[in-house]
Amino acid sequence: MEFFDLIRQRHSIRSFDDRRPLEQEKLDAILETARSAPSAGNLQSYEIYVVKQVRHRSALARAACAQGHVLVAPVSLVFCANPARGVEKFGARSEFYAIQDATIACAYAQLAASELKLAVCWVGSFDPDAVRQVIGAPKDQLPTSILPLGYPDGEPEIKERRPLEDLVHFV
Asked: DSSP for 79-97?
């Protein structure tokens, strides 16, 4: 798929086919793409947790404000900012840069999943402490996003985007 076509055709999909597992090769391709994302100082100040087990996906869904699609998707990636990786180079700004790094890596993973014709939906509504507990992340890591992945179950509802003239401001 051409890049601009991919961007235009990408949509959040919350309906996953729970009978079809995600192949390891596709998961590896998504993770490799996330790892290729740009990062501040090339420090890659983030961690990615791969959640596959049903009991962990269930707990993650509860931590994500009872969003059921997190449970149904066969895999969820949890992106966490890891500010400690940048403290020496960036000092107090390391948290800000780590959050950006994790967010960009998640966006790359989302695009890779879309390129592979997978269902994917960015989840930002969750209890960070509960998510940390589910994935076993240390307290100094900040969960920034959850990315459920799998095969779609049906076609997504396409929503309109804001018009450019409403979104873009020239100064």
From this structure: EEE-GGGGHHHHGGGHHHH
Which class would CATH give 22-155?
A: alpha beta
Residue among 1, 7, 10 at smallest CA distance from 118: 10
> pLDDT confidence of 155, banded at 50, 70, 90?
confident
Distance CA(160)–CA(164), nearest Å, equals 12
pLDDT digits (tens, 9 = 90+) for 5-20: 888 888 899 999 989 9
Nearest Cα neighbor of 5 from 111, 147, 152 is: 111
Three-state secondary-structure class, residue 58? helix
Collapsing DSSP states into helix, strand and coil, what is residue 78? strand
Contact indicator for 73, 80 with CB cutoff of 8 Å: no
At residue 49's C-alpha, the angle toward residues 47 and 55, to 5°, is 160
